[in-house]
Write a structure and sequence with these properties.
The chain is an alpha/beta fold. It has 16 helices and 13 strands. The chain has a single domain, classed as TIM Barrel, CATH 3.20.20.80. It has helices at about 15-20, 30-35, 55-70, 80, 90-105, 125, 135-150, 165-175, 185-210, 230-240, 260-265, 270-275, 290, 340-350, 375-395, 435-445, and strands spanning about 10, 70-75, 110-115, 155-160, 215-220, 225, 300, 305-310, 315-320, 355-360, 400-405, 425, 435. The relative contact order is 0.14. Bound molecules: 1-deoxynojirimycin. 1-deoxynojirimycin binds near residues 17, 162 and 302.
Amino acid sequence: MGFSKDFVWGTATAAYQIEGAAYEDGRGLSVWDMMCRKQGAIYKGQDGSVACDHYHLFKTDVAIMKQIGVKAYRLSISWPRLIPTGTGQINQKAVEFYNNLINELLAAEITPYITLFHWDYPLELYCRGGWLNPESSDWFAQYTSVVMEYFSDRVKNWITLNEPQCFIGLGHCEGIHAPGDKLPLEEVLRAGHNAMLAHGKAVQVIRAEAKTKTNIGYAPVGDVRVPLTMDAKDVNAARISMFKVTEHGAESKVWNNTWWFDPIFLGKYPDDGVELYGSKMPKINSKDMDIISTPVDFCGANIYHARLVKQNDNGQIQEVDFGQGYPYTFYGWPVIPQSMYWGPKFYYERYKKPIMITENGMVNSDWISIDGKVHDPQRIDFLGRYLKELKLAADEVPVHGYFLWSLLDNFEWTMGYNQRFGLVYTDYNTQKRTLKDSAYWYSRIIAENGESL
Ligand code: NOJ
């Protein structure tokens, strides 16, 4: 019961958020380099050009992970670093960098989980239409093939796309993430369809070309609903609400679960979504859904928070306000640990795949204390509460792993360096890393496999 002996205790990052070296060794530009140059797009005009300088300091970072005792590390490959123009010419310097990083991890007995796409889309391909181009899924398949050729002899765990709700929803619908577009809904849905096709084709390429046994997943946003009480009516209200396609006011029109999970795991778009989007639906070619639903091995979800739901006296599903004084993180996200119980449970119920928490963590306003240490009791409390709920979930459904976001404080997209998610504090002037109290705490939790939670 609880966490299995081989539970994957990990930590996660993404290339653009930590690597830096944006103009070095032949890296091509990505849509995030472009976004960061748009006036007012990013907090104080910051960007990822230096970030945590992980490109040069990766050995230090792997040594820190070894010190913490993490079993696995979820990193992403920068597509434009590997293939600067997105297709064609391969950058051997990038091959060298990722080879060195992978080898360093393996030598430290840390299992790499590689995300193929964590938002840094090649600028060159964006100029050719990006995700709207009918060839975009083939570009992604070709890139995947290059990754297989160079790295799949040592890496077996692959995650195709990170959070399509963000790079399509926030990036192409709301325009607040790269590439910063506000497209009409039909184009947003078309871009999303192409991204899911890209996922499916990538899964097929990995299966066909990987040089070792593979373990493949996908990491969408886990948009969880938590029932107000354990009463069956509230539980059912939460379940229905979690798997519904709705337009949430000013939020992204495509911010939901089923639009992004059902095609992958069930081979079809959800009926309510098809009805809601009506004439805006993307054109679906005959083989598309088969490609998109090429079987994967696990269901990933990035879960940070949730909405509270109940069934009201009229039998309707109602979202419940958290109330005055409710705890929120520095991002304004509600602290709701039960999301770690209900999320895995509801996803497993519907998709019947082992669950991996591909991201969870807490943003805080951390600083170095007068004693030279970083005391982050809120993060320890937050993680303890969330992991306790995950452990309860693991009693009931297969939960295979947990990746804590993030190893290091890093470039938090539109929030720049203002938001710190790391277990390790990054001083952006000196690049000095300082383990926060939570890193020592996580280290103990890993060593005892979550026994004390
Ligand atoms: C999800 C994203 O995958 C990651 O890049 C981001 O930094 C974290 N959430 C925190 O917002």
